[in-house]
Specification:
This protein is α/β, with parallel strands linked by helices. Helix content is 58%, strand content 9%. The radius of gyration is 27 Å and the shape is elongated. The model has no long low-confidence stretch (mean pLDDT 87).
Amino acid sequence: MKLSARDASSYFAKPDQNASGLLIYGADAMRIALKRQEVIKALVGPQGEEEMRLTRLPAGEVRKEPSRVLDEIKASGFFPGPRVVFVEDATEQTGPAIFAALEEWAPGDAQIIVTAGQLKATSKLRKAFESSRTAYAAGIYDDPPSREEIERILRDAGITAPDRDVMTALTDLSRELDPGDFRQTMEKLALYKLNDPAPLGAEDIAACAPASTEADTDDILNIIGEARTPEIGPLMRRLQAQGAQPVFLLISAMRHFRTLHAAACDPAGPAQGMSRMRPPVFGPRRDRMIRQAQAWGLHKLETALGIITDTDLALRSAGQTAPQMALVERAFIRLSMLGAQR
């Protein structure tokens, strides 16, 4: 049977204990691994592997010894409880061994969990599971986790469901991170909130979210936004030594000042405008940017965007001969001095 994306999410959390098997396929190996771990844990429990109720069969072993799949699903376990035979990275070459095991499967046998890469609609392996009355097939795509999946991850991590705004922030974070990093962030949050009765807040997410790879870039942007002009030169030297590119710094500045401008344009004020940003701005960084938007004001922010645009055009000009990093540094100094004006 073929599982839709919505049905698959529910099935992974609560699989059919009486099914003969499940095929999980897709292009993203990390997403497939996470779903496979989830469904196997739901079938055999957290102690299943320790109790030898989980048998792993790499595709290479199945090709060398096709009868292994059938032998393992029929084998009797030493410990009582449901059993799983996991065939990893299956291909069309391992298909015949899996087909034979599915045909011979009977109630009480181990359930067959198979993972594979991207499979075409014409794949025999995929068709075998989709056409079976007792087995299931689920395709995993690059869609971000749904709200229900995030809530389940929170429950698994022992975190109480937060309020709507924090949940929205988590949803946005899940769209920025790959599935493995997002799950690790949730586990880190669970440890961070251990024995803390306070509800999960945006500052907690900011403390546990992966560190930005643009930390030094954020430093220079905050220096400009807070009009600390004397600090620009030394930090620009360090950024240049680290290999920062002038165009990247300018793009980052444009993004930063557009965010400030959008917040300043909000009729309810910069604080309300910042809370509507997507992707969201968390914790201390959010408070810092609100202060910057309030200090600059709409008029100066529009002037700042003009300076950045002019510098960008100068960098792209065919006749430009001045060093690009020098042009960007001069623009940053002009911006900082603009911010210092009253």
